[in-house]
Amino acid sequence: MTDPALISERLACAALLHPEDEAISYSGLHLTWREWHGRVRRVTGALAAAGVRHGDRVAVIDRNHIACLDIMMAAGALGAATVVVNWRLTDPELIHILIDSSPRVVFIGDALVDRADHLRKGSTSVERVIVLNDDYDAWVAAGASVGPSPEATPDDIVLVIYTSGTTGQPKGAMFNHRGLNANSIAAAGIGAMGPRDRSLVSMPLFHVGGVGAALAAVHEGVPITLLREPATAAIVEAIDQGCTRVFLVPAVISTVLDAGTSGSAALASMSLVTYGGAPCPRPVIAKALAALPDTAFVQVYGMTELCGTVTTLTDRAHRDPHHPERLASVGRVIEGTEMRIVDPLTLEDLPPGGSGELWFRSPKRMVGYLNRPDATAEIIAEGDWVRTGDVGRVDSDGFVFIEDRLKDVIITGGENVYSPEVEAVLTTHPTVAEVAVIGVPDPAMGEAVIAVVTAAAGHTVDEDTLIAFAREHLARFKCPRSVMVVDALPRNAAGKVLKTALRESSRATSI
Fold it and tell me: Which residues in the chain land under pLDDT 50?
């Protein structure tokens, strides 16, 4: 067959080449490539019968579920897009996303069904809600077997992933088939997949790291073990059952290593562990390298808008005794991707060794933000360059070092937390006058969210009360781990809060 252009055609290709080999294992369900392909064709038919057409959107809200991959490939075959939503968000956050993305059909996890009516009432576009339990299975079984629509093209939007912006409003990053296939090719270049490989997908499918790993395995015809969530016991069991490669965030690597001999033994049997999503604490990676000399470790750096990875730090670089300083880098730019280091004020390229904003150009970048041409124009510069907001430099051997962030993004456990969003919530509490949210180093999570506040006149700020208030309005991972009460926030001459000073003060206090 010709080179597949749609992500569903990658599955069709695998079904043609090795139909009776196992394709995916999920919660006791085992499907061959032929069976999975047939299942996706029935989902395509069921979506078409539900009125989903070219240019429409559907949404999935659940922990990792095979249905998410079914629906993404099936909707894409019709020229429609799937919005994969972070199920941990609060109802107001979810409703905002449903209003913004306007899906016609919403698929929701069985454990979240009590929220379905509220979410449906919050978005007028939703025509049908299907629960991911026996109802979904029956719905799939009743679907006619339907192939790709002749209207579907590689340039159609197939996936939307929401990522918060510095204003606190989530934005939907849109990806087409062409970009996702380019990402799969790039992923294969990080570590060649062979006939004996099996990919463990445990990270959330609402992140590019999770969905990208799954689609890359389909692209290469490598079987997948899909976990509901990255629980240590489940990861160890999956590795024991034959998984050879995995993508994890540093916090999960730390948890598995801390599980004792079972965790270390499991990772030791892996051929490749790729990690990213947050800086890995030096003690964690040093422990992993020492305990697992025969397992290849590759660090990846990227961002949602670039569909993930744009640089890699190879296993050889991890273990190079002559250049230990490279462990502080994020490696070199991957093949097919270009990088510039730009002065964020003048937008001019900086000379070698200079520190500036990292810009990347890649065929796998997002098309843009859904309904946000203004925000798209801010991040995608002339010439299709994506501005990362990260400040870095590159050494004479091409290794990239991240030095700071232009925007106050906090990365905790692989999740991005944007301080303005948290600050906007906390300032509505009656005891709070001003607030600045910062990230401070945390050995397990990479960074911890800290709120530095001043009390409103006549009030006293209670830490537990304020944290509980935040949890009523924000997903738990966005909420502050602790609260520092100060008399006044430090500011520069222009009145801008000096978050660098707050971080330094917080570190000094914790010593």
Answer: 1, 165-167, 493-494, 511
* Phi-psi region at 193: left, alpha or beta (left = phi > 0; alpha = psi -120 to 50): beta
Phi-psi group of 499: left, alpha or beta (phi > 0 → left; psi -120 to 50 → alpha; rest → beta): alpha
Residues present in the chain in total? 511
- Nearest residue to 284 (alpha-carbon basis) of 441, 402, 503: 441
The residue to which tokens 């964020």 are assigned: 344
Phi, psi of 454 (to 5 degrees): -115, 145
DSSP 192: -
pLDDT for 80 equals: 98
Residues with Cβ within 8 Å of 334's Cβ and at least 6 positions away in sequence, in order, are 186, 189, 190, 309, 310, 311, 312
Q: How far is CA 326 from CA 251, 340, 405, in A?
A: 21, 20, 19
Whole-angstrom Cα distance, residue 259 to residue 314?
26
Distance between CA atoms of 46 and 30, rounded to whole angstroms? 22
> For 415-433, what is the HEC assignment?
EEEEHHHHHHHHCCCCCEE
Supply the DSSP symbol for 349: B
Which residues 6+ apart lie within 8 Å of 489 measured at CB?
434, 436, 452, 454, 497, 498, 502
* Token reading at 90: 């609060």
Helices H, strands E: what count in the chain?
17, 26
Q: Are strands 57-61 and 105-109 parallel, antiparallel or unpaired?
A: parallel
Pairwise CA distance, residues 286 & 299, whole Å: 13
**SS3 call for 163:** strand
User: How confident is the model at residue 408, as a pLDDT?
Assistant: 66
pLDDT tens track for 181-213: 999 999 988 877 777 899 999 999 999 999 999
What backbone torsions phi and psi does residue 491 show, to the nearest 5 degrees? -135, 155
pLDDT tens per residue, range 103-145: 999 999 999 999 988 888 888 899 999 999 999 999 999 999 9
Please classify residue 404 by burial: count the beta carbons closer than 10 Å to its beta carbon, then call 0-12 exposed, 13-18 middle and 19+ buried. Answer: exposed
Residue 203 DSSP code:
S
Which pLDDT belongs to residue 443? Answer: 86
In angstroms, the first-to-last Cα distance of the chain is 62
pLDDT at 457 (0 to 100)? 86
For residues 227 and 123, give the distance between their C-alpha atoms in angstroms, rounded to a whole number. 30
CA 372 to each of CA 86, 172, 216, 464: distance values in angstroms, whole numbers, following the listed order: 20, 8, 28, 37
Asked if residues 115 and 87 have their Cβ atoms less than 8 Å apart, the reply is no
State the CB neighbour count (10 A cutoff) for residue 225: 24
Residue 197 sits at φ, ψ, to 5 deg, of -80, 155
Count CB-CB contacts under 10 A for residue 66.
Answer: 20
